Amino acid sequence: MQNLIRKILVAVDFSDKSNNAVKMAVHIAARHKAKIILLHNITNHAIIDRTGKQIIGAETINENFLKTQRALKELEISLKAQYPVLEIQSVIKNDRLIHGINEVIDFETVDLVICGSSGHQNFSQLILGSLSYQILTEANCSVLLVPEDCKKYSFDKILVPIRVLEDLTNKIDLSVAIAKRNNGVISLLGISTDEDLIKIKDAYQRARTTIAIKSQEYHSQFLLTRDKATQISKFSEEDDADIIILNYQDEDSWKSFFSENFFKQIINYTDVPLLFLKNKSVKTKNYSEDNVGFDITLPHPG
């Protein structure tokens, strides 16, 4: 069976939600025999005066780097003790977080980024954008958001909504691969508005056929609604889903900055891991190089 998850990058900041994301990553990596890259980013603070940009607190940055280096090494050693066959690498970046993540994605050909999510966003996060939401929208590969309170790390029940047509074949292939690695069951949910009913129903039937041909256990249902995010969340709760696999396609992107688009709704209203499939050929915008720093790849322990 083709392994569609070969390299996993985990954004690490040593918080509880980050630690939970790491735990999820090692379980997935063990099942898929994937490499794990632990990435921590140190952000510079600077002022600009007549002489140009001046980094504030260089000594503090160096101190933070040494602390981070030790903490990552301890984390590696702990993980290797539990999972001795796993390949684990640590990277420290001194850059804008998303820029640093995308550099590692491109250089290492990462298949999946995993980051912790607090779930419900407060109002300021809705305006400014939480880090998990920023990673979701700007990382150059698929992203798995892991809620801080998620304590199940296997995917016995895999909810796969069919709501848009983009990358449908890749989405079904990934869903089947995950289901087989977990001995899980796919719950296929066709979900559409009246306007898109014909094309979504056709895609839904094709997905059912593909899953059956691949000899994967599944069950299916079709819903007609305009409130897709809420209905997917409700269905995931009723179905006791362990993960939801979604296309990276925001059908509500036209909404205003203060409105909840599909992504924000599904993050806010769902308390299970969300995997957003993103085509690697679709790159986000390039970020400026005004925060040029360093990156250090730490050697494997032992």
From TrEMBL:
Does Kinase appear among the keywords? no
How is this protein organized at the quaternary level? Homodimer.
Query: Keyword Amino-acid biosynthesis on this protein?
Result: no
- Family, per the entry? Belongs to the universal stress protein A family.
Keywords of the record, alphabetical order, are: Cytoplasm
Q: Which domain of life is it from?
A: Bacteria
Organism placement in taxonomy? Bacteria, Pseudomonadati, Bacteroidota, Flavobacteriia, Flavobacteriales
What is the protein name stated in its UniProt record? Universal stress protein
Give the organism, scientific name: Chryseobacterium formosus
Boundaries of each UspA domain copy? Answer: 6-147
What Pfam families does the database record attribute to this sequence? Usp (PF00582)
Subcellular localization is given as: Cytoplasm
